[in-house]
Design a protein that fits this description.
about 90 residues, mainly alpha, 2 helices, rod-shaped
Length: about 90
């Protein structure tokens, strides 16, 4: 009986495994994007403090970077409840 159950459930388990792999890859990519944006923000601060960037340009670019970071964080929290639904 267990063998039959395993055979019946195998396609579903495989699909679930694929979805977990895709989710893990997406989280990793988001992490890399966050690291890239933080490095860009740091470079922006350095350029502003060294005087090679005007305050107005600094403010505009900083706002863009921070908005993008907020979007990434919002996207990350939206996917968490969905993940818990699939494991139940």
């Amino acid at each position: 009986m267990l063998l039959i159950d395993d055979l019946i459930l195998a396609p579903g388990k495989f699909v679930f495994w694929i979805l977990r792999q895709v989710h893990a890859a997406a989280k990793e990519e988001m992490g890399h994007e966050t690291e890239r944006l933080m490095a860009e923000l740091s470079e922006l601060h350095q350029r502003f403090e060294s005087g090679t960037l005007s305050e107005r340009e600094f403010d505009l670019r900083e706002r863009d970077i921070l908005d993008h970071l907020d979007e990434l964080k919002a996207g990350g929290t939206d996917s968490e409840p969905m993940d818990s639904e699939h494991t139940a």
